[in-house]
Give the backbone structure.
Amino acid sequence: MTDKTPAPSARNALDQSPLHQAMHEQMQDGSLFTRAIEHGQAYLRGISDRPVAPDAAAQAALAGLDGPLPEGPGEAEAILDQLAQLGGPATTAQVGGRFFGMVNGGLLPTALAARLLADTWDQNAVVHAVSPTNSRLEEVCQRWLIELLGLPQQTVAGFVSGTSMAIVCGLAAARWRLCQRLGCDINAAGLASAPRLRLITSRHAHSTVLKAVVLLGFGTDTIEYAEVDDQGRLRPETLPALDETCILILQAGNVNSGSFDPIRACCEAVRAAGAWVHIDGAFGLWAAACPNLAYLTDGLELAQSWSVDAHKTLNAPYDSGLSLCADPEAMVAALQNSGAYIPTSEHRDGMHFTPEMSRRTRAIDLWAALSFLGRSGVATLVEGLHTRARQFEAELKQAGFSVINDVVFNQVLLEIGDEAKTTAFVDHVKASGEAWIGPSRWFDRPVVRVSLCSWATTPADVTRAVAAFVTARDQG
Ligand SMILES: *Cc1c(COP(=O)(O)O)cnc(C)c1O
């Protein structure tokens, strides 16, 4: 600003405390936000040159952020600088090309930029009346997701924190509907007097499936397990006899091997019994959006509910999960919420589709991600992860490593040796700063997981990571 006259809102604030005046000035002046962006840009520019895992010194320096609760207001610029200087180096370089841990996705620049803008708006996604923008973008994203993933037309989407919560939603909707068919309103009756439902899943179900089972009060001891084949896929012939009290939880993307349960065969069996199928497709459901990989999710439209993350394979920012359900009445009933002060409308009121009432506007950055990529861009992104995984597999085999899974999607599993050798190998790779990987267990054998989840991984990144693996093996 050229003249020093305070902006109108700052002028009106002069009768408030110095703290309030400072905050009004920060809002009007904006240099604080520019500073944050500049720190972020410096971080992104240096991402390939820094260690992927933070070193011990960077972690020790976090002590500088610790201390007694400040007695009074601080200095905003100094706070940001301190955070950038001490916090930044102790992050893992997830947005770079050599983070292969968990199934953590990378970051789409357009989605990040949209999120920065949306965070500035600080909208509450609760109902249309408090954010028409979010409400409309939830509708748009829902329609686009139905099209991209090939879901039934009536499917509703809930924009939740991640797949953990989306599984809770799917199972809650399943419970409401199955109980309702059996003449019980589970919301009123509660578990104690409800008909007993049967939960069926495979021995390789993700730990968050078990968490949902616990949170919803079913109890893990009641789960009936189907067996899996050598890739971790549910074997349909080992399903128990099915009836109208069953909820089958399938997996599209085994967190270790990346394999997919045989969805069509299982769904057909369950439909014949009048039961419910939920598909946990946290990272794998996106295969459906990729013509060359869609065979993996064949039959997915026969399920009743699905859980998938936008923050994994799609590379949207955290926290962004999707609860999808082809039975809108059951989903809304299971998550029911109302209050005299809540202005609901004939528009889309997001809180009817999520466990949370107030939440951030996840649909905004998701909309930006899908707008940027388009149908072909999503397919290119997903297929790119598979291509890099195949490259990893080939170069590892070339270097004499033992790859023990069929690389059908984005996961590569390595056998290194016993527990101690495996741990030492992982530690060595991480300490080299060249890549981030994690250990796991596969049929009770210690293994190393390599997860290709970021668009930012280049062919050269894969080669560089394999070189670090060779060094870790030969020096270990
Ligand atoms: C990551 C993951 C989950 C949990 O998802 P969050 O987004 O971390 O809550 C569930 N199932 C599978 C297969 C996963 O990979």
